[in-house]
Each structure stands twice: as structure tokens, then as C-alpha cells.
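C-alpha cells please, single chain.
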Amino acid sequence: QSAGIPRFGDGLGHVLRGQPDFAFAYYNKANILCAQRDYQEAVKNYTQAIRIDPDFAEAYFNRGLTYVFIG
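Here you go.
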């Protein structure tokens, strides 16, 4: 795991505390979690992005791929 990934992820946590309805932050956090193979948490974050923006097609797509990784 790269040293940059946790720092980036921590920055997204800061963004989400300040803007809890920012769907792209949840989406990006989910992408990072997938890269770290934390698929269950990734699904939760993709789902939150979809709750905020029901038209967020990329979040649906990536959540579906993540379910494939989970098995």
C-alpha cells in the first residue's frame, strides 16, 4: 500500500466532515477502499454516493464491480 493512499483518504474524511452531501467524495473514498481491498466499506461509500445523487451512474457501476470482487 502506498504511503500516499492513507493521506489522500484522510483528506477525503476532512472533506466529508465539512460537506457531508458531496457525493464525489464518497465515490472517491470508495475507489481508494477498493484499491486497499476493503470491499465492504467501499460498497457502503458507493451506496452513500448513490443516496446523495441517484443519477450517479459511475457509482452504480463501481458498486456492481465491487460486489463481483466480494463474490
